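Example S7 (structure tokens).
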């Protein structure tokens, strides 16, 4: 496909706080496409919608009517967010949907595509995990291939030697380890690490009655508790997102003796240590221990100063004192736009008939191309 496509990627993460959308122009097709980020917008969920989505994700019973109404309202928020982009046209929409259950091989990304296809007169691709799950994969993480397509050139120009790492500080923390631009996709690696924002947000909600700790200001006032951090770190051992509520919520209940500020600081410390340990293990196989890495932080958690500082301390300790930790903005992509932009690229790959998952990352059975199966359910206007 040689002409330019205007693709909207939509992301609603496990934090269940709203919908992020990104407008991306793509030229070319398949893994050789050239994407260009154009715009970003975000719309928070109304309180009642967020509460119902969180109840469904926490496995609380709702009526079929309430679930149907929730799915319809979720689509309306997507439409509102896309309108904020003010696009001249939309050729394709790719929606992640809201993860309300994920326990492979079962998964549910709640979404109702028909209203979007009607409103924007374009095809909508959704339910991108299903093909990978059917082929024996975990259905996640799906973004590593899109990270490579979006950021390979910018990263290669800034990191001529050593690994480049994109760290997503979303509801769940995951990371992509990228090769240089000339390497093939088999060199890309991706890993889920541990709960992130939806743990920090749960502490803020339960202990302070706040939706979140804005910019990590409260965590900066606290001190990590070593024993509590170790216990939390052990609870992260699975290294896999279930996408169902907060896997570490029992920790919050057990450590009510901590002040809210200390609990937040402790969680930031444990999250940073989990990331550093996983990256050190991953990089040890192909890079000498101590090789500096270029680490770009993305997602809403990248604005949490306590978390960002804890990550920088942990990575320079466990990887190299020369490790560079920066915002994804240094690579030309707003950190809050990364996941939505990735889903725009994944949608374009789906339209091109190219698999979007990497078998060596998700565990799915490879196809003849070396990628996962063709993905996505489609709805046409």
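Recovered sequence:
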């Amino acid at each position: 496909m040689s002409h330019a496509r205007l693709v909207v990627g939509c992301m609603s993460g496990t934090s269940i706080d709203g919908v992020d959308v990104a407008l991306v122009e793509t030229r070319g097709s398949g893994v050789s496409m050239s994407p260009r980020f154009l715009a970003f917008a975000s719309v928070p969920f109304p309180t009642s919608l967020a509460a119902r989505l969180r109840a469904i994700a926490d496995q609380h019973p709702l009526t079929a009517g309430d679930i149907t109404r929730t799915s319809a309202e979720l689509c309306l928020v997507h439409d509102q967010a896309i309108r904020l982009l003010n696009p001249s046209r939309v050729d394709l929409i790719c929606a992640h949907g809201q993860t309300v259950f994920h326990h492979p091989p079962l998964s549910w990304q709640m979404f109702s595509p028909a209203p979007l296809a009607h409103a924007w007169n374009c095809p909508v691709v959704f339910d991108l995990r299903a093909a990978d799950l059917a082929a024996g994969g975990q259905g996640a993480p799906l973004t590593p291939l899109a990270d490579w397509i979006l950021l390979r050139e910018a990263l290669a120009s800034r990191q001529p030697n050593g690994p480049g790492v994109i760290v997503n500080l979303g509801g769940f923390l995951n990371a992509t380890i990228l090769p240089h631009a000339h390497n093939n996709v088999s060199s890309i690696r991706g890993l889920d690490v541990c709960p992130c924002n939806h743990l920090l947000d749960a502490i803020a909600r339960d202990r302070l009655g706040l939706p979140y700790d804005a910019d990590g200001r409260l965590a900066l006032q606290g001190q990590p508790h070593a024993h509590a951090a170790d216990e939390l770190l052990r609870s992260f051992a699975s290294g896999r997102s279930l996408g169902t509520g907060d896997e570490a919520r029992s920790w919050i209940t057990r450590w009510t003796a901590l002040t809210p500020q200390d609990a937040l600081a402790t969680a930031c410390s444990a999250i940073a240590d989990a990331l550093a340990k996983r990256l050190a293990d991953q990089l040890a196989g192909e890079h000498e221990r101590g090789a500096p890495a270029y680490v770009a932080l993305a997602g809403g958690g990248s604005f949490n100063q306590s978390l960002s500082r804890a990550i920088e301390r942990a990575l320079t300790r466990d990887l190299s004192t020369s490790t560079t930790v920066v915002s994804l903005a240094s690579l030309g992509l707003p950190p809050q736009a990364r996941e939505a932009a990735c889903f725009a690229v994944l949608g374009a790959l789906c339209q091109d008939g190219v698999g979007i998952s990497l078998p060596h990352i998700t565990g799915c059975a490879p196809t003849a191309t070396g990628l996962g199966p063709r993905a996505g359910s489609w709805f046409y206007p």
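Notes on this example. The longest strand covers residues 92-103.
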